[in-house]
Amino acid sequence: MNSINIHEGSFDPWHEIISFQNNNLNGVKSYGATASFVGTMRDFNEGDDVVEMVLEHYPLMTQKQLESIVELSIEKWPVQHVLLSHRVGLIQPSDPIVLVVVWSAHRAAAFDACRHIMEELKHKAPFWKKESLLSGESRWVSENTPDTRDN
Amino acid sequence: MNSINIHEGSFDPWHEIISFQNNNLNGVKSYGATASFVGTMRDFNEGDDVVEMVLEHYPLMTQKQLESIVELSIEKWPVQHVLLSHRVGLIQPSDPIVLVVVWSAHRAAAFDACRHIMEELKHKAPFWKKESLLSGESRWVSENTPDTRDN
Amino acid sequence: MKAVRVLYFASLRELVGKSEDSFAIEVPITGESLWCILNKGIDLPESSLLAINHEYADLQTNIHENDEVAFFPPVTGG
Amino acid sequence: MKAVRVLYFASLRELVGKSEDSFAIEVPITGESLWCILNKGIDLPESSLLAINHEYADLQTNIHENDEVAFFPPVTGG
């Protein structure tokens, strides 16, 4: 059971996990590992104070890319469930931007798949951030950091 | 701000994260990444059906080891906060056993430290599991799986 | 002349001053040629990406009738 | 003769049939010798671990007055 969501307004990642588990994993006793990642907006980036941000995306392609990323990760690791949510629109510091959760029998698959999905999303899903700085300027974030995995 | 907790009864990892954030990270805008891991009791292990489990530990040493694991991970990675909780006592399938959460500015440190803490805990913290099988037998889990990280 | 829909996102949308072109053109045509015809005098920035029907494509890939084409800068989500 | 406290956990606790020994002994003494004296006729299982004052220690490490010593099997938490 996978769930991919785009949120136009603010969302609470922890309540989203609780809802997902209540709706889909109630009484399920087969998963031993849940790895999650939440990306949150900071009030600084590349040395500058950031006051807000607009997250633009390409809806049909976003959906297709995210589905493909999740599908491929399920082929690669013995994953039982994936929950993936991403915020778009006007975002304030401390707002959650992205949530990736993976349920699996064992911890290695959960950790690996969660990080893999996050890196793939960062480098393939068509989202773009435009930051408004404290200085009054605004700028497009030019590039995501390289893949952070060792391999 | 770090928090290390031993729970004698059941605990909800997601509500524990929500409480930690409400109490300690309200209005904090410096973290961009939260990586978490939840270990949950399965109803099977090594090919057998498991009906319940007792988790024994060595309280003073547990506390000392967990503190040391968290301290060393903070020295190794630029981590802002760590929340670590572990269940002891009588445990049923689908009960959460362990929670590790790491807050950091960037995702690499959050992912790396979360997984590192989890592996260190698995191999150093003095906890022992005794499983009761559907067959009526009971047995001590003999050993944790090897470190699952690549390096 | 066949119908092709072209979308622009983020900094490329701002660069060309429009979010969409929708019109008829001789196909097949490469992504690179399509940009040149639609945005005369504006160089496609070097790191730009192309998607055809929501899949990444090379700038030399041919575009066909009814394709949805998108030009955009490196992605920065997550 | 000095006071030493010895704890046993999990399968080792079941093996020796007690969770604790607390008594006076000649120190220093290694963990290995301590086990032999306290549990005559019961071999310490090969993968067993020793902690002295809540830190892992080698079986050859010397134990001193007022130390808290613990014998236990490989840990299986998390």
Automatic annotation (TrEMBL), chains A, B:
Keyword terms: Molybdenum cofactor biosynthesis
InterPro entries: MoaE_sf (IPR036563), Mopterin_biosynth_MoaE (IPR003448)
BP-aspect Gene Ontology terms: Mo-molybdopterin cofactor biosynthetic process
Top-level taxon of origin: Bacteria
Reactions catalysed, as given in the entry: 2 [molybdopterin-synthase sulfur-carrier protein]-C-terminal-Gly-aminoethanethioate + cyclic pyranopterin phosphate + H2O = molybdopterin + 2 [molybdopterin-synthase sulfur-carrier protein]-C-terminal Gly-Gly + 2 H(+)
One annotated GO molecular function: molybdopterin synthase activity
Oxidoreductase recorded as keyword: no
EC number(s) given by UniProt: 2.8.1.12
Record's keyword annotation contains Transcription regulation: no
Biochemical pathway: Cofactor biosynthesis; molybdopterin biosynthesis
Stored Pfam families: MoaE
Quaternary context: Heterotetramer of 2 MoaD subunits and 2 MoaE subunits. Also stable as homodimer. The enzyme changes between these two forms during catalysis.
Family as reported in the entry's similarity comment: Belongs to the MoaE family.
Protein name: Molybdopterin synthase catalytic subunit
Organism field: Leucothrix arctica
Organismal lineage: Bacteria, Pseudomonadati, Pseudomonadota, Gammaproteobacteria, Thiotrichales
Automatic annotation (TrEMBL), chains C, D:
Xref: SUPFAM superfamilies: MoaD/ThiS
Pfam family, one: ThiS
GO molecular function: nucleotide binding
InterPro entries xref list: Beta-grasp_dom_sf, MOCS2A, Mopterin_synth/thiamin_S_b, ThiS/MoaD-like
Matching Gene3D superfamilies: 3.10.20.30
Family to which this protein belongs: Belongs to the MoaD family.
Protein name, per record: Molybdopterin synthase sulfur carrier subunit
Lineage: Bacteria, Pseudomonadati, Pseudomonadota, Gammaproteobacteria, Thiotrichales
